[in-house]
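Chapter summary example: a protein plus uracil.
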Amino acid sequence: MDKTRKLQEIGEKIKTCQQCPLYQTATNPVPGQGSASAQIVFIGEAPGYWEDQKGIPFCGAAGNLLNKLLSEINLKREEVFVANILKHRPPDNRDPLPEEIKMCTPHLKEQLLIIEPKIIITLGRFAMNYFLPQAYISRMHGQLKQILWQNLNLALYPLFHPAAAFRRGEVMSQLKDDFLKIPQIIEKIKPLELKPTQKSLF
Ligand code: URA
């Protein structure tokens, strides 16, 4: 079975998922969107109002900013895969609870093991902490890490969440600066034999 079909099957599973109570208050599940053979996967926190309405990740204000940042570095949304830590919207956009993350992330794990990306770009602390549980976003944003995760050699690039950038001007400029380094990272990763280490590449 090809990767697209496998991702569709996970999407179907997510539609009927009742592992945690969030399905009761959500309008639509938001499994993820993009290319099944993407080299780059962006991971956010959880669906917000518009994502819940449409079943599409990052399609509201934060998504508009993400799209703008992507176009500034000549990356198309169709070339990457975009997903979230949680597949259903938490009521009133509250933070994900630890037990919700525990129950929902097996879906994300399955998706990543199918896509087998080279680079994972996390947006915000919840997505970063899925891979680096002890890390602080204020220190770690914009630092490229090589990690071994589920037998995949991954370049992990934590960024601030676009929604946080709307709240604080300095976060917006850091997010933009960090984003502008993505083309360098893509160039760096291509020829690199990735080895698991926590060392920063820059
Ligand atoms: N914020 C997120 O973390 N994910 C979305 O899909 C939208 C907003």
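Key point: Residues 98-115 form the longest helix (18 residues).
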